Amino acid sequence: MVDIVHKIGIKAPLSQVYAALSSVAGISGWWTRETSGDAKLNGTVNVLFRAPDGTEKGRMGFELTKLVPNEDVVWRFSSGPEEWVGTDVTFQLIRRGDYTVVLFGHRNWRQASEFTAHCSMKWATFLLSLRQYAETGTGQPAPTDLKIDDWN
Amino acid sequence: MVDIVHKIGIKAPLSQVYAALSSVAGISGWWTRETSGDAKLNGTVNVLFRAPDGTEKGRMGFELTKLVPNEDVVWRFSSGPEEWVGTDVTFQLIRRGDYTVVLFGHRNWRQASEFTAHCSMKWATFLLSLRQYAETGTGQPAPTDLKIDDWN
Question: With the C-alpha atoms ordered B74, B91, A120, A104, is the resulting torsion angle positive or negative?
Answer without folding.
Answer: positive
